Amino acid sequence: MGPASERLVQRWETCGRAWIAVLRHVWSAGEAGMVERGAIIEGPPILFEIASLSWEDPILREHGDRSLIVRWAEDRPRGGGPRGEYRARLRDLNGVDQLRWVADLLRARPWTTSAWISLTVPGDTAEAMPYLTALSFRIRSYQLIMTAMFRSQNIHRSYLSYIPLRDVQLEVAEQLGLPAGPMRVFVDVPHVEVADADRVATILAAIPEPNAA
Predict the structure, then answer these.
(1) With contact defined as beta carbons under 8 Å apart, do 140 and 113 qualify?
(2) d(CA 39, CA 47)
(3) Which end of the chain is more exposed for a tag (fewer CB within 10 A), N or C?
(4) Which has the closest alpha carbon to 23: 196, 211, 182, 146?
């Protein structure tokens, strides 16, 4: 990306701070919308970057769903990374281990911009279409940067996706013998379900905006 594009990227030091910022983005700029599960507050698309991700994040521990955080942190699949359908599409999509393919490509061509993998399958039904649609990997400044692209995401519990994805980035970085750089996330339709609106309002009220007095 060039300098103009880089200015569009919001940067946050921790997963918890990024989570709160994106919640506030949806809350302040969102409009009424609908998804399969019902009414939502739909925010504009957003691109952001997270430097550090951990289940021990103090903001997540204080304001996230503690029972889900404990369950996801303890019930990690061998080797880390996402569980269920995402894991299958990363490890064996039409017989291809996509993470190994990425590592092999970057090892052979470290300058490439072609290390993209898709988690979609042509002809998938709408119900089968994953929310996470693609991952991009590139080596820049001697570190591995990963971008995750979501077609839609409920931001209320989005951290439950971000931290397992960091494990994917770390795995590919380890195969290449490189440190992992920031993780970027693009969400085309960030939203909050109306059913969760009261909880979101409580979370945002408890954490003042950075420039607030």
Answers:
(1) no
(2) 24
(3) C
(4) 196
Contact assessment for residue 143 and residue 178, using Cβ atoms and an 8 Å cutoff: yes
Ramachandran region, residue 59 (left: φ > 0; alpha: ψ -120 to 50; beta: rest): alpha
Phi-psi region of 95 (alpha: psi -120 to 50; beta: other; left: phi over 0): left
Q: Are 156 and 193 in contact (CB under 8 A)?
A: yes
| Per-residue pLDDT at 88 | 79
Residue type, 135: L
Where residue 132 falls (left for φ over 0; alpha for ψ -120 to 50; beta otherwise) is: beta
- Burial class (CB within 10 angstroms; exposed 0-12, middle 13-18, buried 19+) of 164: buried
Q: pLDDT at position 130, please?
A: 86
Q: How far apart are CA 106 and CA 180, in angstroms?
A: 14
pTM > 0.85: yes
Which residue positions in the chain have pLDDT lower than 50?
1, 3-4, 78-80, 212-213
